[in-house]
Write a structure and sequence with these properties.
It comes from Glycomyces terrestris. The chain has ten helices and six strands; from the N terminus they run βαβαβαβαβαβααααα. It is an alpha/beta fold. Helix 7 packs across helix 9 and helix 7 crosses helix 10. The protein is globular and about 50 Å long.
Length: about 220
């Protein structure tokens, strides 16, 4: 059973998400909160698998809440999906760096919401296509200075795995492309995450771009 915490200051939005999610036999909404401070308290109390957190809230906003969850070792299994009213805004990169597994636009289709919760519960990166396109466009317009030092500890095979993850491939697809077993692919990805201090695959993708390993201008 996937246990979900809803954190949003709009009661109607929370009610709608709860109604949709509780139609699924493998998903349970364990609690709701109307602000980030209460959401943090409930996350620590209930340890949900997934927290759907609004990016703009009173008291504690979605970015600060995500950062605190990611920094708390007792909440290392909680995956945060940040909710936004916009296809992209200036806080997307900040939230991903803070530890969000991904983003959802609030007008998401019901089946996409359910899929997102399941993907996040697995620890996989989740970005709506519109957000992915704008995220890459941001890097094209303002590419970060490469940081070779961030990659120094990666082996050649780990670098190869990171590039494939940044292309959106699953571990099974990475294994197929690298002609290795899925378990070996998972090991390469997990070791790369540890070396780059990435909490999950979303942060690994950000690290790939910010280190210069992947460039949207010229491809990997």
């Amino acid at each position: 059973m996937i246990r979900v915490l809803l954190v949003d200051d709009q009661p109607l939005m929370r009610s709608g998400f709860r109604a949709l999610l509780e139609l699924e036999p493998d998903i349970e909404v364990v609690a709701e909160a109307g602000n980030g401070e209460r959401g943090l308290a409930l996350a620590r109390e209930l340890r949900p698998d997934v927290a759907l957190i609004d990016i703009r809230m009173p008291l504690v906003d979605g970015i600060a809440a995500t950062r605190r969850i990611a920094a708390d070792p007792e909440l290392d299994r909680v995956r945060v999906v940040v909710l936004t009213n916009y296809g992209f805004d200036e806080y997307v990169l900040d939230a991903l760096r803070a530890g969000a597994t991904g983003f959802l636009v609030k007008d998401v289709e019901p089946e996409d919401l359910v899929h997102a919760v399941r993907v996040a519960a697995r620890g996989d990166a989740l970005l709506a296509p519109s957000i992915t396109r704008r995220l890459i466009a941001r890097y094209v317009a303002q590419p970060p200075a490469p940081d070779p030092g961030a990659l120094a500890e990666l082996t050649g095979r780990e670098r190869e795995a990171v590039v494939l993850v940044a292309q959106g491939l699953s571990n099974d697809a990475v294994a197929e492309r690298m002609a290795i077993s899925p378990m070996t692919a998972k090991t390469h990805v997990n070791r790369a995450m540890a070396k780059l201090h990435a909490r999950d695959r979303a942060q690994l993708v950000i690290a790939a771009y910010e280190s210069g390993l992947v460039s949207p201008r010229r491809g990997p």
